[in-house]
Specification:
Layout lengths: L40 E3 L2 E3 L12 E7 L7 H16 L5 E7 L3 E8 L2 H11 L24
Parallel strand pairs: 3-4
Antiparallel strand pairs: 1-2, 4-5
Length: 150
């Protein structure tokens, strides 16, 4: 730059909202083979243009947060663990999941992966009630998630 001459300013914006849809019939069976023309998108009742459309079977990336405070000890925690394991069992092989334990602190007990064995192990062994000090509050760790298109 030449002294006294400022750098140019660049402003940009994007007005694109991603909308994901899964379509099932009355019995809950997925409906496949749909095209862009089969969909209508409305905002506040007003028809919106669909700029991009991609159909397919995309993998999920999900986080399962489990309360491990003493308020859910015993039967409540056992039920929550069983529900989490049932949820994991329904995921497809390429779907990623992570397990997060929430109590007086938040801890990632199984990082984002497709490894169901380590996820089930974390639920079984690392989700035990922990007593925290009331003065601790919540201490959220930095969690890094990968972006997955779809």
């Amino acid at each position: 730059m030449v002294a006294g001459v400022g750098a140019g300013q660049f402003t940009s914006g994007v007005n694109l909202v991603e909308v994901y849809a899964s379509v099932t019939d009355g019995q809950g069976t997925p409906v496949t083979g749909l095209k862009q023309a089969d969909f209508e998108l409305r905002e506040n009742g007003e028809l919106q243009a669909i700029a991009n459309f991609t159909a397919g079977d995309f993998p999920l990336s999900v986080a399962v947060a489990m309360d491990r405070s003493f308020s859910v000890a015993g039967a409540k925690l056992t039920t929550a663990k069983a529900a989490a394991e049932t949820f994991l069992a329904e995921l497809r092989p390429k779907d990623e999941a992570m397990i997060i334990a929430v109590g007086s602190q938040v801890e990632v007990v199984a990082p984002l992966s497709i490894d169901r064995s380590s996820q089930r192990d974390a639920i079984a062994k690392r989700l035990r009630p922990r007593r925290g000090r009331k003065s601790e509050g919540f201490n959220f760790p930095r969690v890094s998630l990968r972006s997955t298109r779809g």
